[in-house]
Structures are given as structure tokens and as C-alpha cells.
Amino acid sequence: MSPTPARITAVDTFDVRFPTSRELDGSDAMNPDPDYSAAYVVLRTDADDGLEGHGFTFTIGRGNDVQVAAIEALRHHVLGRSVEELCADPGTLNRDLIGDSQLRWLGPEKGVMHMAIGAVVNALWDLAAKRARKPLWRFLADAEPQWLVSQVDFRYIADALTPQEALAILQLGRRGAAEREVLLRERGYPGYTTSPGWLGYSDEKLTRLARQAVADGFTQIKLKVGADLADDVRRCRTAREAIGPDIRMAIDANQRWNVGEAVEWTRALAEFDPYWVEEPTSPDDVLGHAAIRKAVAPVKVATGEHVQNRIVFKQLLQAGAIDVLQIDAARVGGVNENLAILLLAAKFGVPVCPHAGGVGLCELVQHLSMFDYVALSGTTENRVIEYVDHLHDHFIDPVVLRDGHYTAPTAPGFSAAMRAESLAEFTYPDGAFWAADLAQGKGAAA
Fold first, then answer.
1. pLDDT digits (tens, 9 = 90+) for 377-398
2. Burial class of 379 by CB neighbour count within 10 A (0 to 12, 13 to 18, 19+)
3. For the chain, first and last CA: distance in Å?
4. Is 355 a catalytic residue?
5. Percent of the chain, pLDDT > 90?
6. How far apart are CA 199 and CA 260, in angstroms?
7. What residues contact residue 23 under an 8 Å CB cut-off, 6+ apart?
8. Where does the record place the Mandelate racemase/muconate lactonizing enzyme C-terminal domain (predicted)?
9. Domains of the chain
10. Catalytic, out of 54, 110, 222, 224
11. pLDDT, tens digit, 9 for 90 and up, residues 223-240
């Protein structure tokens, strides 16, 4: 008698919030007081191996409960399904979640529901990689190109990238992959840091952290801008004096400007040699980005952390609107959709420099960039992963930086699992921290 196949038995969710607003960590012109948060999901099974799939999407406080509710609305698509079948073809779950017509109406393929899909899909990939006993970057890099193509939804992007083109790109990407994996393990993947540049920091703190970033081996930092031009001029001058002329300095407006303002403001800061201007206007404004790019060159234009799906990324590339494409591991529909976006970037020859920071975004997106280097684009030239130096201690397998480079994860999975004690302390509103906080009448995240 054959054994009963393992099934998904639980989809557990947690509203996890950290009080980062109290030190102004994460502050920028659009988001002055974020409480970095994660709508967190755990897929549990009845398999004898005891493995679980962990995933999440990132928010900044209020509304994280709404995001959790969106994940819970997907539970019926997951419970009771075969673990082996799902892990052999995560694309089936991705298609089922996106294809729920009644929930799709709330998007389609954008916003809270799409981010919820990303959390669940990422949790499945975490489980699949753990069952394969590989870190996700290597699980993807070792996969057959034909199988990777089967994981991509080409609907709405086939005019820019066909399955045949994607297969050819992946087949070419495998050449030299073994040698690149050795290099990756030896030197890691280049990073840059936003830690000095939060808008709420004093000039003294900015200077100290910028100098420390250079000492730590980073060759690029990033400053938040967009609230006050005179303030930005002073802060950019302060940062440039701290890091010298040879370290790259990016600026990030977090969607603050109209198109004309973006051009004027960026030109006003051009004397400080910004490498790129990030999110200069609405992430949905493809033509606005194209106009800004034309007007501010040679300053590069970067965007992507709030781009809602592969279709908008396709248009940004088709319109020649960006110099740098910034994927986010948890904004779109998970690994499957990010595979599509990485392939689009490779087709158009645009470098990918992921958005990270937040809660666990560094832990996740490092895997996608490392796969991209080893088995897709084959290069790290002009490519860096964002790094922010807080909240990593809440993860079982946190990122490790060495000389400004992300070291390649070795533990199986997607590096997504949070520590049980962190969940117990920071789950809102009943975790130990928030219960005490609310009892004192603070309740900043309420």
C-alpha cells in the first residue's frame, strides 16, 4: 500500500510590526514615519520531514492587517493540496491564485491582493528549495531552462518577450554558470547602502554613517531627497564631502515629484554627481519617466520597488524610460513574476539593482540577483543590491555582508523564516512589545 501523499495542512498568518518610526529609520519624503512591517505566512504540511514554507510581503505599519486579510483570502486555494505536486511546479499555484476571477477583480494583478499572492507563492518556493536541500538562488540556477520558462506567465508580455526568446536567454545564461558560482561563493554579490541617507537623520549622523559605509567596503550609498530643495543641497554636499569623489551616490525621491519638478530638482543636485535618481515620479507614469530620463541625462533614472507587475515593467523598458530596473521580491506576484521581469531586463539589456531594506527584503532578493548573475545575465557590472542595516536579527538565516558584498546563502530555502521569539514579541497587537505599548497608551501602529 502506497503512503498517503503529503498535503498542505495549514496557512498561518501573522501581522508583524516593528516600531522603526521612533528612531526615524526608513524615513523619506513620502513616508516620514514608517513602522516597518511584514504580513507573514507559514505553509505547514503533514510530511514527515517537518519542513515549512515561509513568506511575507512588506508594509510600513497601518494596513498590515488588511494585507494579512488578503493572504487569508487565498487560503482555500492552498489547503489540502499535494506538497510534491506544488513543489514540482510552483507555477500551478501562481496561476490558480492570479486566476481566481472574483479576487482578481480587486486588482487585477496589482495592489494588496497581488502582494498577498506574492507572499504565498514565495512561501511555496521557500518550501520547494528546502525540500531540494538548496538555497533558492542555487535551486533556480540548477533548474533546467525549459522548466524555468514553464514558470513564467507570458500573458501580456509576449509582444516584448516570447517563450522561445526566454528559453534562448536562459540557455545562453547557463554557459559559464559553474565558474560564476565559484566566484559568487568567493567574493559575494556587490551591495550598496541606504543606511546613511534616511531623511530624518541629522547631518552629523549622515556624515558618520556615510564614512562608515566607505570603511565597510561599499562603493555606493543612497540619500533620500524631495522634501526641501535647500535641505537636499546641504545634505548632498555633506554626503559628498564625507565619501569623496570616487564613491557613487544615488538619490531617491520616493515618488515625490511631478515630472517638471523632477527635472528641475535633479538638475539642481547634479553638481554633487548623483549616479541615479530613483522613483522621481509616480511608478505608474511610464511616459513621465521617459521624459525625465531624457531631460536629466547623464544622471540615470531608476525605478521598480512600487511597480505593480511585469506589464508595467515591460512598458518602462519598451519606452526607454529607465536606466536601472529595481525589482522587489515581495511587491509583485512572487518568484514566478520576478523571473519574468529578470528575463525582460535581460532581453532589453538593462541592469537590475534590486530594492531591499524593509523587513526581510534583503534576505529575499539576494537570491534573485545571485540567480541572475550565475545563470541568466552572467554579470554584476553596474549591478548592486540595496542594503539597510536593521531588523536582520529577527531572521533565522540573516544576510551576511563582507567588504560591501552579500555573501551567498548556504542554508536551504529563501532565507524567509523569522525567529519564533520575534513573532512572539512583535506580532500586532497581542505580541509582548505591542501589548505593553498599547497598555501604556502609545499604540503608534494602531
1. 999 999 999 999 989 999 999 9
2. exposed
3. 54
4. yes
5. 92
6. 22
7. none
8. 203-299
9. 173-420 (3.20.20.120)
10. 224
11. 999 999 999 999 999 999
pLDDT category of residue 446 using cuts at 50, 70 and 90: very low
Q: Which of 355, 367, 394, 405 is catalytic?
A: 355
Cell 562608515 belongs to residue: 212
- Is 390 considered catalytic here? no
